[in-house]
Amino acid sequence: MPSRFYFDTVLDEVDICNLHSERTRIAAAIGNGEKILLYGRRNSGKTSLAKVMAAKWKAGPGHGGMFVYVDFYGVASMTQIASRLSAAMAEGYKKAFPARAALSAALEIAKSLRPKMDFDPDGEISVSLGLTEGPNKGVSEIIAALGAMKQRKIPVLLVMDEFQDIHQAAEAEGILRGCLQTLPHDIPVIILGSKRHLLTTMFNSPNAAFFNWGTHIEFGDIPYDEYWGYMSERFAEVGLSISAETSRILQDELDRVPEAINRVCARLCNQFPARGELQRVHVHEAVRDLVESRQSTIEQYLGRFTEDQERALLTLARRGGLERHPMSRDFTAAARLSLTGARKIFAKLEDESAIYRRGDGAYLFTDPLVRLHLLRFRGN
Ligand SMILES: Nc1ncnc2c1ncn2[C@@H]1O[C@H](COP(=O)(O)OP(=O)(O)OP(=O)(O)O)[C@@H](O)[C@H]1O
Ligand SMILES: [Mg+2]
């Protein structure tokens, strides 16, 4: 039986551990047409939960509305932003109005986008939008079309993922903020992001376009006992059990990052031949095997960093993977870096999402497997 520990994928509701308060707050925000920013470290379940909540909203009474999900990962220009948005809008149309007549009526509302409906050889509907005159106008037309739908009583929900990446595109923040301001105030908008430092610049600095925008919700660590319950249930299906203490060791070993925890748990399900209670040693074996199996992938990933950057990462790993004062003499001396060098390197590592800065200012690895890899293959 395949295990029910998933990774590298967006999760269904039943496979999302915990996140109860986040769930309730997102549901309320969607219901009240609020604006929310969801942020947290990578692989903390943001996309999964936003998609699950959107699906519930769509299936809710009297809805069946227009859900637009756009992922801005890696965008660097307004042209890319406009093209991601137009593809997302077309997808939203197709899902919201699968019947031809309803789709025609909905496309009629957005005439300025020059929507085009086609049928592929199997009779499936496809929609494309011919944007007029350049990306800035295109973006504002798409957002305006959402407003027009809402005015025709079609419920609308807009979700923008990896939003911090628009920071790379000149003027994008001002333009998007301007467009969003023209929307009817009761359209719920959810923004998601994983780079806290960029989001802070975008949402918390007084001269930023998104200053004071929406309610901010941070995804934190899942309580140990909640994850213990979640893994116990799944282990039980394959005849395994785990004590609260061993489960805690497992979670700590992986810096409490759900995706890495799931990878190890899946390994334990598949590889542990004798059923029964998992012990500490089994956890360590599974982690070790996982690190070995990911060796070439992580080596390839590390290839993007300079020697100095890698040394900073290695120093962070050797010092336990959690650093409150990376600019301290202690740290810079251990990493053989100047203070200026350390500043630049930490900024770069944060930009690259190799490290994450928590609310309390401490830095940690985004992916615990990178930390474990460095310890294993660069010597202790
Ligand atoms: N609450 C959770 N319960 C169980 N697994 C989780 C949870 N949150 C995240 N995961 C794990 O992390 C993986 C990624 O989840 P998801 O894409 O929703 O996270 P994310 O926060 O959007 O990540 P990113 O910042 O990289 O976009 C899942 O496939 C799963 O392995
Ligand atoms: Mg995500």
Protein architecture, described:
The protein is α/β, with parallel strands linked by helices and 380 residues long. The chain has 3 domains: 19-219, P-loop containing nucleotide triphosphate hydrolases (Rossmann fold); 224-293; 306-377, Orthogonal Bundle (Arc Repressor Mutant, subunit A). It has helices spanning 20-32, 46-59, 78-96, 100-109, 134-151, 172-181, 196-204, 224-236, 244-253, 258-271, 280-293, 295-302, 307-318, 329-335, 339-351, 368-377, and strands at residues 35-40, 66-71, 115-119, 125-129, 156-161, 189-193, 215-219, 240-242, 276-278, 322-323, 355-357, 363-365. A 5-stranded parallel sheet has the order 2-5-6-1-7, sandwiched between helices. A 3-stranded antiparallel sheet has the order 10-12-11. Helix 3 (78-96) packs parallel to helix 5 and helix 8 (224-236) crosses helix 9 (244-253). The relative contact order is 0.12. Residues 46-47, 161 line the site of magnesium ion.
* Overall pLDDT score: 92
Structural class: alpha/beta
Number of strands: 12
Radius of gyration: 23 Å
Helix and strand pattern = HEHEHHEEHEHEHEHEHHEHHHEHHEEH
| Major β-sheet annotation | 5 strands, parallel
Secondary structure tally, helices: 16
Oligomerization state: single chain
- Detail the poorly predicted runs: none
Ions and ligands: adenosine-5'-triphosphate, magnesium ion
Portion in helices: 40-55%
What is the CATH homologous superfamily assignment of the largest domain?
P-loop containing nucleotide triphosphate hydrolases
Number of domains: 3
**Widest sheet: strand ordering:** 2-5-6-1-7
- Ends apart, CA distance between termini: 38 Å
CATH topology of the largest domain: Rossmann fold
CATH architecture of the largest domain: 3-Layer(aba) Sandwich
In what range is the share of β-strand residues? 5-15%
Q: Please write the CATH class name of the largest domain.
A: Alpha Beta
Shape: globular
